[in-house]
Amino acid sequence: MSTKNNPLPLLTATPSPTLDWSREGTPASHEYDDIYFSVDGGKEETAAVFFQGCHLPQAWLEHAPNLQPFTICELGFGSGLNFLATWALWLDSMNSDAAPKNARLHFISIEAYPWTKEDLAKALAHWPSLALFAAQLIANWPGQVKGVHRLHFGNVTLTLYHMQARSALSVMDFKMHAWFLDGFSPSKNPDMWSQEIFTRLAQRSHIGARLGTFTVASHVRHGLAEAGFHVEKKPGFGKKRERLEATYTGTNTDSSANTPTSTQPIIIGGGIAGASIARAFARRGVTPLLIDPEPNLDSAASGNPAALVMPRLDLQDRPESRFFLSAYLYALTQYTQTHPPLQTGITQIAKSEAERKRFVKLLTQQVLPPDQMQALDHIGIKDKTGLSLEDNMTGLYFQNALLIEPKSIIQSWTSKCQRLEATVERLEKIGGVWHIYDNDNICIAKSQSVFLCVGANVQKFTSTKIRFIRGQISWGDSDCIPHASLIYSGYAAPYKNGILLGATHTHIENGYDIDIRPEDTLANIAQYEALIAQTLVPIQWQARASIRVTTHDTLPIAYQNDEGIFVMSGLGARGFMMAPLLGEALVCQNLAEPSPLCSETQLRFTPK
Fold this sequence. Notes:
There is one protein chain. Helix content is 28%, strand content 26%. The strands form five sheets. Strands 14, 15, 16, 17, 23, 24, 25, 26, 27 and 28 form a ten-stranded mixed sheet that branches. Strands 6-7-5-4-8-9-11-10 form an eight-stranded mixed sheet, with helices on both faces. A six-stranded mixed sheet has the order 18-13-12-22-30-29, covered by helices on one side. It folds into three domains: 230 residues, Rossmann fold; 132 residues, 3-Layer(bba) Sandwich (FAD/NAD(P)-binding domain), CATH 3.50.50; 146 residues, 2-Layer Sandwich (D-Amino Acid Oxidase, Chain A, domain 2), CATH 3.30.9.10. A hairpin with a 4-residue loop joins strand 20 and strand 21. It is of the alpha/beta class and 608 residues long. The two termini are 16 Å apart. The longest helix is centred in the middle third of the chain and has 20 residues. It is globular and about 80 Å long.
């Protein structure tokens, strides 16, 4: 918690490195006065130091029958060369007849100074054999955004920690099968080669985990040995005479809070929360059973005809603040890969002088990079929206924010699920298996893993404290349609041949008040008319009301409530932004895979 004497740090961009390109094909860091890879050949160095050092691909082929992902952690992502070469080797080795088709690789990498897209493209152009891999990495690159970022490339998952190694290792809670220690030399970057780091590596290692690095500095050898690694010198690469290989022989246990189960997972609730979990399972070749009484989302908040996918931006650097950025970038990728959005680009108008000042701070701190967020004056607002507003109006433009059609997304993400149309009344655990009962007290399904995504009904199954917010939207043909979506006190979006206006925000006592209120439609219209300073021509409006679930601190709920019971709720008005990454995190927790949430963030989303 912050105090006046100890305020939280500001959330700012992660700095990119200042690169020296004077060496042909071998960039160097001005900050550390050291090169990123060998002048004798970066790709060859990766194979000699890391693949040989970690016994790849033999190690992951031997591991594959365990049906658990093979995990590699790299200290120093740099240009991404090690990752791309590993990805290519993985695909090559997994194409053999002996390799299981469902094998998965988690590659985790830590980088305090993430490169720009332009520098990545410049460096990686030197390896044409990796061009297809490099293009995919660059297209999905999160840029200088703080936090933990997850990128999917088929059965290879890349998780980027944009922070210092000490910080990253302290908030990981999973173990590795292999380590690539590829930071700058110990003399140039001593913080990365400290005893604290070596101890963290040991704590995050499976028994038998292997480690490769280019340095044979004595304090590195001794430090790794003290942490529990058996260390050996091996012939080096290029001008380096020697390199290190190490194997973790310490006393860590390989136990996990969750172990994969053989029973079919059950998802209760078919809105965006349940759909996000279904998508995460589908990515792993798992077919869940989806139970929902309303397959058409008739009353669910996810059943609105259109939804905005916008970032939630904080000025202070908290675990959840970083999550909001990562979740936003992740959601954009997931939605655009599924269906073309209804529209791209959203304008947010400052509602007050205080919000105007806040926008200036967000831009100054570069919470999101310029290619994700830019300032608008009243001329810029007119250019983006087509609306002539007051001359003192200012705002922010989010170039990649989306207007999506929820039902199309949800139908796509749940298309591979088995389905059961029923109302779940209660759960009972019998012999380690959860029994699901309907409102006739009939057991309709059983599983060791159940995901509760029931929105306003979450209190039926947990003691989680939530609040209910009723929101009503309105839409119809109009004579004053913005060119693009915009947010003010409410929001307006072009929809079909007309306009969609929303949304009212009323705290209520229960989760069932969804009857249409004509006065709420009038309130939506009045807010828009006040913004554009004109009266809309009377038309026939349609409307829809739904209940948003939120918490007292407005943070989402995503956690394991009981052994085998996982809960996602409290998404509020940012459900379509947060749900995809939260769904991925819960599935990873269920399957004992590396999570896209750091441990500090997971604690924030776990009710006390």
